Amino acid sequence: MKEVPLMTDEILEKYFKAGRILSQVRSEAKDRIKVGTSMLEVADFVEKRTVELGADGSAFPCNLSRNDEAAHATPLPGDETVFGADVVKLDLGVHVDGYIADSAITVDLTGGYGDLVKASEAALHAAIDTVKNGVTTSEIGAAIEDAITSHGFKPIGNLTGHGLAQYIPHASPSVPNRRIGGGSLLHTGDAIAIEPFATDGAGKVTDGSLTEIFQVIRSKPVRLPAARQLLKDLEPYRTLPFARRWLQGDKLDYSLLQLEKAGIVHSFPVLKEVAGGMVSQTEHTLIVTDDGCHVTTK
Ligand code: CO
Question: How far is the CA of 249 from the centre of ligand 1 (A)?
């Protein structure tokens, strides 16, 4: 049995507001992604502008993943890296009272991967076209796979879109990027993010060595004073992911590790294409309606 989602006009308006703010930040940030500009400056801009425009905060740290990195890359504290001739995925999240807008675009700074970018864009459009009350996530996955393969690329099979709930950026159901058996039924009022990834590699990602994004997944008492303080500092983010560069404290890395070992904090390593393939991503958030959907991040 699937629970009937509690979607009120008030909540819907919060999803729409988050989406409108995201769209503006995304377009302003896109113009700042250029060869030679600082990645940290772009991430800072996205996160500050989100609040300036009236959102309650970022739903997760601004992701700037390049080339064979598919997701979960964000600048380090004091990062001096600049964009080169890269294929850049900008994935950003905005929340209003915990209601989330999640969207991504790919900016090709190489000039040579236009078709790869088009493949994930076309897949997202094809996926959105299938959405209405009663669609299954497997139908969405099939539309994504067909669009990407018809462009001559592979979908990344072990990355998925996802449901959204208040303060929960990755709720059920997952929305596959390929044909699967079964799948979940979507209903009017469901909030979901669809995010096709296309690659010229093997079509799979694995954990890289860098980790800059974390999330509190449960709360329990901790003994170490520095870790206890860190857990207190993390309270404003609730169950939303945060970046290491958002935090301070002389024992920060040690405290983070302690919280992770205690099962309180979950870490999100950078995800890399296993064959070193180039990766594109396009994502929108939408609310399912009786005969279609509202794309909140248009
Ligand atoms: Co997402």
Answer: 30
Neighbours of 102 (CB within 10 A): 29
Q: For residue 35, what are the CA distances in angstroms to 31, 84, 213, 278, 280?
A: 11, 5, 24, 17, 18
Distance CA 183, CA 135 (A): 10
Q: Contact at 8 Å (CB) between 264 and 220? A: yes
Phi/psi at 109 (5° precision): -90, 0
283 is catalytic: yes
Instruction: For residue range 191-216, list pLDDT tens digits in order.
Output: 999 999 999 999 999 999 999 999 99
Number of other CB atoms surrounding residue 84 within 10 Å: 12
What is the set of domains in the chain, with CATH numbers?
9-208+278-295 (3.90.230.10), 209-269 (1.10.10.10)
Give φ, ψ of 176 to 5 degrees: -65, 155
Please report, for residues 62, 116, 187, 219, 239, the alpha-carbon distance to residue 75 in angstroms, rounded to integers and kept in the order given. Answer: 9, 24, 37, 27, 21
C-alpha Rg value of the chain to the nearest Å: 19
* Count of CB atoms situated within 10 Å of the CB of 109: 18
Q: Return the H-helix or E-strand segment holding 107.
A: strand 99-108
291 pLDDT higher than 60:
yes
Closest CA to 84 of 109, 116, 113: 109
Instruction: Identify whether 151 is a catalytic site residue.
Output: no
125 among known catalytic residues: no
CA of 283 to the centre of ligand 1 (A): 7
| Marked catalytic residue, from 69, 195, 212, 273 | 195
**How large is the average pLDDT for residues 55-59?**
98
Instruction: Say what the pLDDT of residue 5 is.
Output: 52
Render pLDDT for 160-197 as a digit per residue (tens, 0 to 9).
999 999 999 999 999 999 999 999 999 999 999 999 99
8 Å CB contact between 83 and 41: no
Say whether 284 is catalytic: no
